[in-house]
Amino acid sequence: MPSLKDLKNKITSIKNTRKITKAMQMVAAAKLRRAQEAAEAGRPYAERMTAVMAGLAASVGTSASAPRLLAGTGEDKVHLLVVMTAERGLCGGFNSSIVRMARLKAQELLGKGKTVKILTVGKKGREQLKRDFASLMIGHVDLSEVKRVGYTQAQAIAKDILTRFDAGEFDVATLFFNRFQSVISQVPTAQQVIPAKFDAADAGDAVALYDYEPSEEGILADLLPRGVATQVFTALLENGASEQGARMSAMDNATRNAGDMIDKYTTIYNRSRQAAITKELIEIISGAEAL
Amino acid sequence: MAATLQFDLVSPEKRLASFQAVEVQIPGADGDMTAMEGHSPTITTLRPGILKAVGADQTLAFAVTGGFAEITAAGVSVLAEQAVAVDDLSGTVLDGMIEQARELAAMALPEDKDAAEKLVQDMMVLRNHEAH
What is the pLDDT of residues A143-191, one digit of tens each? Predict the structure, then answer.
């Protein structure tokens, strides 16, 4: 049985923890709003970009003249997994869910005898993947100094990916990130960026009617690298919103848990205090009766 | 009132402008063009330059680099990688952009060298334009 003082200390400490988790929750809520706005603001660009590229890709097709970013290298041997996670923890299953998905994919590819290379964005993913795949890691992008993710960061990451592609380091690149659905639901997503893949639905019917200046191939060659940057940017924004959402609900849970624990320990504290008083009374009474 | 078309300018980070314009002047990769209502559907890539949208009651000008414009009979949407309103444009911003373009040109592969150099030249023209 812990002493009354121990219990009291414990309750104070949990109360302090609750204050911290509560504060973190509120910070995450504020950041979430900003992240969501950023994600929404970036959507029109990404959507138009995809639609136009899908239309172009459909008309250029997989002819021999198609750019390598669209047609691929013709092989399927080396896969690059770009794993995007947060720089910080304390956000529930956010990082683990991405890492789990990437790990499964890596194991599946390795099982098929393919070569896997891993590029990590964000510290947490690197720490977790290093345990299993240390030899496969080829790079890391550190965003811990970045307060607000901008298009410049996405461009830098895309440039890194494209340089590696041009150097023939891989055949297929896939992005791993969390797609934001709501505060309580973030969906781990794998998106193939090289060679570019489009849903038929993305391409409107009208696209074929356009005049192109310069040629279709020229525009496509210009747009595809930008498309990679756009997809990376969208992924970063979705990830940012998801991270804050995940942190917010994780901290909400933690706050509620702390509240429950405080209630529990307060009851125990009161009971023990009452027991001590009763014990003292019994001692006094039995002492008086003995006289 | 002259017939208008819907003008949208978006950058990856946000929507910069959206209104009814009478004409839109676009710095296309193969030459400048002006889009008005009823223009034949065209997609063109952009070179760095000034994009100007003339509306019934407002005229907006932006310095844009990279991206493309999609023109239909009823509207123009411009997707620019970087877009700065001309009013906010100062020599220093441009100098930064030129510096960036120069670095890229210096690093470019031989076959891309011409395009990269052209980019720098376009920026310089933009800079001179700004100085006047």
Answer: 888 778 888 889 889 989 999 998 888 899 999 999 998 888 899 999 8
Q: Which domains does chain A have, with CATH numbers?
A: 4-20+252-290 (1.10.287.80), 34-248 (3.40.1380.10)
Cβ contact, residue pair A41, B81, below 8 Å = no
Q: Using an 8 Å Cβ cutoff, are A174 and A105 in contact?
A: yes
- DSSP conformation class of B67: E
- Are B95 and B60 found together in one domain? no
> Based on the structure, what is the number of domains in chain B?
2
- What whole-number percentage of chain A has pLDDT above 70? 94
Q: Using a CB-CB distance cutoff of 8 angstroms, which residues of chain A are in contact with residue B66?
A: 226
ipTM: 0.76
A107 Cβ partners below 8 Å, 6+ apart? none
CB–CB contact A222 B45 (8 Å) = yes
Considering the candidates A24, A91, A116, A129, report the single residue annotated as catalytic.
A91
A130 is catalytic: no
For testing contact with chain B, the best of A47, A59, A153, A213 (most B CBs within 10 A): A213
pTM over 0.90: no
Structural domain ending residue among the three candidates B69, B86, B103 = B86
Assess contact for A92 and A247: CB atoms under 8 A: yes
Strand B75-85 and strand B59-71: the pairing is: antiparallel
B71 and B97 share one domain: no
What residue numbers bound the domain in which B117 lies?
90-131
Q: Are B70 and B94 in the same domain? A: no
User: Are B35 and B99 members of one domain?
Assistant: no
Nearest-CA residue of chain A relative to B112?
Answer: A222
A60 close to A216: Cβ distance less than 8 angstroms: yes
Q: Comparing C-alpha atoms, which of A33, A32, A96, A21 is closest to residue A250?
A: A21
